[in-house]
Amino acid sequence: MNQKEKHVDVNALKEAEFVCSLTTLVSLLFFHAAHFIGADLGANPNLHVRLVSLGTSATYQKLVLSSFHFSKRHYWILSLTDTGLFVGNALHHVGRDFLLPGLACLVFFPVSGYLLDRLRTRSYFDSLGDADALRSTAEETLKRFISYIMHEIRGPLSGTTLLAGDFHLSLQTLLQHELTEEEAAPGPRTESETVERHRKIKAQIARMVELTRLMRPQLDKMRGWLHQTIHFRDGEFFPLDWFVVSLHVARTAT
Q1: Residue 126's Cα: distance from chain center in Å?
Q2: How far apart are CA 195 and CA 103, in angstroms?
Q3: Alpha helices for 68-98 (secondary structure H)
Q4: Which of 41, 75, 79, 115 could form a disulfide with 70 if both were Cys (CB 3.0 to 4.6 A apart)?
Q5: Angstrom distance (rounded) from CA 32 to CA 192
């Protein structure tokens, strides 16, 4: 994807976000208007039920607003508009008795909206951080793989020797790992079972370390002989003693 296509996608995303925020704002206006008109018509004469309905609706609306990835400006426009309409609606139907709870709502709802926005942002950053960590690990593995391939191109078995060395170092690191208190804490297994399992794993790792230690000198020998063979084929130095003997073909054949 080139730079122009990326720019078009960003503009399309911003346009979609603006349309969604505008649609949500209109929905909030219709919702509070329905509550306002419905209560005046006597559809819900019980004030307590009406307040519970308004409070529940306001809380769920905050959750809905925080679940969408609105921009900061659009999010706070929607959140504060919803809070103002809720308090105004409740004051209209309840009157002065709702003055103190209304002031509390004016403080609580923006704070809850802010906390929900922080939670959403933190969740996004955490998920992106996990993705970045996985991507960094994949990129590092790719670089090491390319390094092995380049070594193999320059010299046969040199990349394999490096791979064996890295594997040997990783096994030694695992072998030096000691069982921590958290790992030895009782869980599905007893403490003795956990320690015994850890001991068996370390024994297997120690055996693999010994095998890789024996394998690396053999790879070095094979790599050396391959280099000598390649140099001999190219007319370069070859460490074996060899000489030329002239023979009479006819006499040799007889």
Answers
A1: 7
A2: 60
A3: 72-94
A4: 75
A5: 64
Contact by Cβ (8 Å): 213, 161? no
Cβ atoms of 175 and 202 closer than 8 Å: yes
Q: What is the pTM of this model?
A: 0.39
Question: Which domain, by its residues, includes 63?
Answer: 3-127
Cβ atoms 212, 167 nearer than 8 A: yes
Whether 135 maps to a domain, the answer reads no
Does 57 lie in the same domain as 18? Answer: yes
Helix extents (H) in 95-157: 99-154
pLDDT digits (tens, 9 = 90+) for 89-148: 777 766 666 666 666 766 777 777 777 777 777 776 766 666 666 677 677 767 777 776
| Cα 220 from Cα 94, distance rounded (Å) | 89
Tokens (6 digits) for 227:
């280099």
Phi, psi of 167 (to 5 degrees): -65, -40
